[in-house]
Amino acid sequence: MKEITLRVFRYRPETEAEPTFQEYAVPLRDDWAVLDALNYVKEEIDPTLSYRWSCRMGICGSCGMTVNGDPKLSCGTFLVDHAPGPITVEPLRNFPVIRDLVIEMTDFMQKLGAVQPWIIRDESDDDPHTELLQTPSEMDDYKRYSMCINCMLCYSACPVYGLDSKFIGPAAIALAQRYNLDSRDEGQEERLDVLSDDEGVWGCTFVGECTRACPKGVDPAGAIQRAKLIAANEAVKAFLLPRWVR
Amino acid sequence: MTTGLWQRLHRQRVPLLWWTSRRTYLLFVLRELTSVAVVWFVVYLLLLVRAVGAGPGEYERFLDWSARPWMVAINALALALAVLHTITWFMVTPQAMVLKVRGHRVPGLVLAGALYVAWFAVSAVILLLVLS
Amino acid sequence: MTAPDAASAHDVVIVGGGGAGLRAAIAVAEADPRLSVAVVSKVYPMRSHTVSAEGGAAAAIAAEDSFDEHAYDTVSGGDWLCDQDAVELFVHEARAELLRLEHWGCPWSRTPDGHVAVRAFGGMKKMRTWFAADKTGFHLLHTLFQTSLKYRPVTRYDEWYATRLLVDDGRVCGVVAIELMTGRIETIAAKAVVLATGGGGRVFPFTTNANICTGDGMALAYRAGAPLKDMEFVQYHPTGLPFTGILITEAARAEGGWLLNKDGYRYLQDYDLGTPTPEPVLRSMELGPRDRLSQAFVHEAAKGRTIDTQYGPVVHLDLRHLGAEKIEAKLPMVRELCRDYERIDPVRDLVPVRPVVHYMMGGVHTDVLAAAPLDGLFAAGETACVSINGANRLGSNSLPEILVFGARAGAAAAAYAMEAPPIGAAVTAQAADETRRLERLLASDGSESVAAIRTAMQHTLEGAAGIYRDSDTLAKAVDTLRELQERAAVAGVGDRSRTFNTQLVGALELAAMLDIAESIVHSALRREESRGAHQRTDFPARDDVRFLAHSMAYREADGGCRIEYQPVTVTRWPPGERVYGR
Ligand SMILES: Cc1cc2nc3c(=O)[nH]c(=O)nc-3n(C[C@H](O)[C@H](O)[C@H](O)COP(=O)(O)OP(=O)(O)OC[C@H]3O[C@@H](n4cnc5c(N)ncnc54)[C@H](O)[C@@H]3O)c2cc1C
């Protein structure tokens, strides 16, 4: 059987001060993804290699890695597409590394909470026994942004986040927009505080790389620019109009 | 969280020349840098206005100055950069602008196409004015 | 919000951050905002396996549908092993729960006038499956998780692995857990514990289940003395992609997909499932129940009418006649999965599929309040067995189940915690004991590899507890699993690091899987009849005289497994024949 070489980023904080690369030869099989190759390494060659994975069907968002320089879901990145190799596998960029390919992402978890990603509305007139109506076209307005699997590839691709981790970042803003654009939601104004901050939408310089990296077609870059429009609009209104007309 | 571990996290550093590592990053940096050309044209226009305001002599001198080879070179370069700037922005506009006509989103290509049409129309009008 | 201090204490600890766990957490917070509730999860909650559910969630809402019909479909689909009192309350509350999720923002697919749309599903006589395209579980889980963020009393322990239930004199009062990032071992004390750890499909080699589905919660309860109910009922889903085991949702057939053998023939008509029509007919042919469809596949393979591939026999799922537009609108994920993982396009190509282990009907025994027979212990979701699924779960009943019983578990645990006396000191000794065990495990230098034992276990289960079973192979499997238990006891972790040690987790998961594998095989051996997903070639008929009863697997002090039986609750639907397609 043909083989291919994986060059894997290793970092063992208890024994090493700096990361190293380790090479493993794995079978080059047509239907193997990078994740299958890593599992082969772990089961057959080196049990100490650490990485996250779970669903292996591109929906849980666990297995993001940098494969040959690009942020990818390793379950959906096939060896044959990178033959003859070697394939360099590193942790996602822009995040601190806990160990090997495992990144630290509590920063995102906090930012996600900060944009209030839940329906905000006055529920006093809602009838719990029926649905809130929403036409397919109204759903289309936000549907795309609801597809985010929190895989962190967009943060890894975003140079702004790399340079300043205070930037709230693509996925969190896209999710804020997901709710802002939902016909059932009334929370746009509440979310604006966080979004219109310096570290919010204005941090984005529209590189657009987040959208290219997104494996689910979410288009965070578009979401951010649209949020900028809203934020600018609101700022102008707040400046020009008395409160009661706004 | 154990403090020891936080210190042991490996912090990945962004390399100094990060924007050379990827074509798209480079394009982005070019888009941002080419805005200098736009600034230049604004300054140039202001100089022109000042010259016109100061009377025919001053205006003549401005024209002479503009006809010098190095000035022509600068302006030609600035034009190229400004065109690049415009195109890179037009490329991303459909992403930022969502237009809906009768409940359907206008496709990005149509939107970008409309921008180019508008751009060429305005340029044609200006060209007509200048030539006539 | 995340990292708590050493030796934390809460009113309620929920182990599991999937659909059931998050729903339970919200229920506790809503019961009384003064209660402190913790969610312990070995992965970030939005990575839980609920995320991969595709097809939809059932609840009667259409004008021509009724609660009774949903209940009847569920009971007959479960081959009369369901507890009918549980089913009746389930079908009522399912609708309320799905509506609540709608109000929380779940993007359910809609009809043109803005109402929630429903689709057909296997074994259901009416259209009642709500769906969010074919990413229902994904939207459901993310909606729940994002909504849970607004409840301040919820403390999350993300990427903490629970290793043991603390039990003091018959009362459960917390868990011991490892923080994966640091390797820190911690006691999380609580007046009530809810297990919501999901299924255990990874006991088998070929499964739709994620890597994390290792039945941990079932093993925790089993070791603490709670019985596991109906463990022999393991559902095979008829349509998994070969090699990966990735699921092609039943919705593909509900939208009109056909199953074809190697001659392009809709073979299900030969197995008493109805006559083929171009349009899908409810409770007929491709929309029969999963157990019957998977069994038909085995017979078809035996007749040599399946297609051979390097991953064994397959049949074809044909979606081509649906057209690109319908596939894009209703089954985008099916297309995405086929394209990304199989490199085919269902718009043009036939999709190769074969039966794949999908769901465990069995689990921790609970009553309708989600209480297990240990004080202070509750369970909900796939890890629990109430039972509404009986001998065969109907597709799209599990998502509403995790909501209905997640909410019930949260409410019951909250009520219990409010009344319960403070926790005794005995748990400290137990926790110290567990810490020592884990330290020893981490330091062990075993010769055996965890991966090798895991593979052996998986193949043992597939051979003995697959779609068809018999007493000889089951008896042999009992012995093999005993040996594997012994080998596992001396296996080495092979990684001594305390930082994100996935080998340690793998060893603990293997131990859990071996325990539940034993309970599956023992329960299957003792049930000398064929019912739903449990088909014995040596006892091919259903036997309501002896086995209209739940198997209850108890762990013996020596690690053995004892089976008892408990009667099934029948309210309105006496056992009858399961009729599909006629
Ligand atoms: C591919 C697929 C498609 C499906 N499609 C459908 C469908 O269309 N309709 C339907 O009704 N059902 C469907 N199901 C079934 C349904 O999705 C599951 O039964 C259900 O989601 C289980 O939810 P849960 O909350 O019980 O568990 P899970 O979502 O699996 O969550 C388990 C949680 O427990 C945690 N956990 C486990 N062990 C430990 C431990 N030791 N320590 C700490 N935390 C732990 C995990 O981290 C996780 O958070 C599908 C299943 C699969 C596999």
TrEMBL record, chain A:
PROSITE patterns named in the record: 2FE2S_FER_1, 2FE2S_FER_2, 4FE4S_FER_1, 4FE4S_FER_2
CDD domains registered for this protein in UniProt: fer2 (cd00207)
Enzyme class: oxidoreductase
Reactions it catalyzes: a menaquinone + succinate = a menaquinol + fumarate
Entry-linked InterPro entries: 2Fe-2S_ferredoxin-like_sf, 2Fe-2S_ferredoxin-type, 2Fe2S_fd_BS, 4Fe4S_Fe-S-bd, 4Fe4S_Fe_S_CS, Beta-grasp_dom_sf, Helical_ferredxn, SDH/FRD_Iron-Sulfur
Enzyme nomenclature, EC number: 1.3.5.1
Keyword match Iron-sulfur: yes
Keyword Oxidoreductase appears in the UniProt entry: yes
Cofactor note (record): Binds 1 [4Fe-4S] cluster. Binds 1 [2Fe-2S] cluster.
Cofactor: [4Fe-4S] cluster; [2Fe-2S] cluster; [3Fe-4S] cluster
Domain of life: Bacteria
Keywords: 2Fe-2S, 3Fe-4S, 4Fe-4S, Iron, Iron-sulfur, Metal-binding, Oxidoreductase, Tricarboxylic acid cycle
Sequence ranges assigned to domain 2Fe-2S ferredoxin-type in this UniProt record: 2-95
Positions of the 4Fe-4S ferredoxin-type domain: 139-168
Pathway the protein contributes to: Carbohydrate metabolism; tricarboxylic acid cycle
Similarity-based family: Belongs to the succinate dehydrogenase/fumarate reductase iron-sulfur protein family.
Name of the protein described by the UniProt record: Fumarate reductase iron-sulfur subunit
Lineage of producing organism: Bacteria, Bacillati, Actinomycetota, Actinomycetes, Micromonosporales
UniProtKB/TrEMBL annotation, chain B:
Keywords: Cell membrane, Membrane, Transmembrane, Transmembrane helix
InterPro entries associated with the record: Fumarate_red_C, SQR/QFR_C/D
Transmembrane intervals: 25-49, 70-90, 110-131
Gene3D superfamilies assigned to the protein according to its UniProt record, in alphabetical order: Fumarate reductase/succinate dehydrogenase, transmembrane subunit
Protein name: Fumarate reductase subunit C
Organism of provenance: Phytohabitans aurantiacus
UniProtKB/TrEMBL annotation, chain C:
Record domain Fumarate reductase/succinate dehydrogenase flavoprotein-like C-terminal: where: 454-580
PROSITE patterns for the chain: FRD_SDH_FAD_BINDING
EC main group: oxidoreductase
Domain annotation FAD-dependent oxidoreductase 2 FAD-binding: ranges: 11-399
Range of residues in the leader sequence: none
UniProt-listed Enzyme Commission number(s): 1.3.5.1
Recorded catalytic activity of this chain's protein: a quinone + succinate = fumarate + a quinol; a menaquinone + succinate = a menaquinol + fumarate
Cofactors required: FAD
Keywords: Cell membrane, Electron transport, FAD, Flavoprotein, Membrane, Nucleotide-binding, Oxidoreductase, Transport
Entry's localization field: Cell membrane
Subunit structure of this chain's protein: Part of an enzyme complex containing four subunits: a flavoprotein (FrdA), an iron-sulfur protein (FrdB), and two hydrophobic anchor proteins (FrdC and FrdD).
Alphabetized PANTHER family for the sequence: FUMARATE REDUCTASE FLAVOPROTEIN SUBUNIT (PTHR11632:SF82), SUCCINATE DEHYDROGENASE 2 FLAVOPROTEIN SUBUNIT (PTHR11632)
Family named by the database record: Belongs to the FAD-dependent oxidoreductase 2 family. FRD/SDH subfamily.
Protein name in the entry: Fumarate reductase flavoprotein subunit
Species assigned in the record: Phytohabitans aurantiacus
Top-level taxonomy: Bacteria, Bacillati, Actinomycetota, Actinomycetes, Micromonosporales
